[in-house]
Amino acid sequence: MSLVLPLAICGMSTIEGAMAACSDGLVNVVFNGPSNSAQFPQKFSQMPGASNWLTFKFGTEPKQIPMIGNDRAAVKKAIDAVNGPNPPDYLLTFNEPDHDYTTGKVILTPHNASVLIKPLLESPGKHTKFIAPVPAAQMSSWLDNFFKECQCKDSFAAYNVHIYRGNVEDAKAEINAFHDKFNDKPLWITEIGPGNRTTACPNPPPWNQTIKFMQEIYAWGQSKEWIHKIFWNTGNQITSHVDNNVCNSYLLDGNDKPTPLLNPFNHLTCS
Ligand SMILES: *[C@@H]1O[C@H](CO)[C@@H](O)[C@H](O)[C@H]1NC(C)=O
Ligand SMILES: *[C@@H]1O[C@H](CO)[C@@H](O)[C@H](O)[C@H]1NC(C)=O
Ligand SMILES: *[C@@H]1O[C@H](CO)[C@@H](O)[C@H](O)[C@H]1NC(C)=O
């Protein structure tokens, strides 16, 4: 058989030098708010490499995956959205309920979280897939206790973690450790960056090291069929305060100018 047919079938991907592509939906981005959140759709338009975005304030802008806040009013908004005329495909549930960074305290106990989420799980709509709460410390007992309290593990389509490690091998090890514990559903990584709790800003890792981390973690994520989405943190620079986790991983700076990371992000090949 000639080579013509397979080449035609495979199209671009067989042409020498053509880039491999990340699988559909894998590459996504986080915007840190709430300040300037009205600008997130415009910022997202500079990130054609990403499929979806999230932020911490509930919203249903195009391509946004909504997240519920840790209170009753937010749960009510989510119930309205999933039962409304345009229900979102996915809904992220509680964000880091186990740890308040300013007080060091638990925001919602597993018991309180299970009480709070119950009305939503009882009126889930017909379309939206729910993503499990994401603890700040993914290996803490919060999630185990939450599932025990609410008896609602089956209500979730995927687990969810946040990972910050200065080197990619440590990041992979943490993700693997979580997956070893919770391996019966796919995983979403809804925050990741090469910052970590030991190296403080303003001495962030150099940009080229961050680019390498980003390319490696997406390539690795692509190779694991149980990892469905990875949200790079962050699309926008945080200018209101210092966040050690993301001090050199923003795609747009405070003046909306691309950083050295934007172009590599838009051209990730996951290979
Ligand atoms: C849990 O709920 C109880 C009863 O409403 C409330 O008193 C308590 O402050 C809540 N605590 C947390 C951490 O969720
Ligand atoms: C934090 O980052 C530094 C510099 O990249 C690295 O040497 C160290 O191993 C990292 N620590 C953790 C816990 O990832
Ligand atoms: C980043 O650039 C510095 C200075 O040019 C170089 O020493 C270092 O090896 C580079 N690191 C990576 C990961 O490419």
TrEMBL record:
Please state the span of the N-terminal signal peptide per the UniProt entry. 1-20
Where in this chain does the record put each Asl1-like glycosyl hydrolase catalytic domain?
A: 37-264
Q: Name one GO biological process term.
A: fungal-type cell wall polysaccharide metabolic process
Record's Gene Ontology CC terms? fungal-type cell wall
Q: Which UniProt keywords apply?
A: Signal
Keyword Signal part of the UniProt annotation = yes
Q: Which residues cross the membrane?
A: none
Q: What is this protein called?
A: Asl1-like glycosyl hydrolase catalytic domain-containing protein
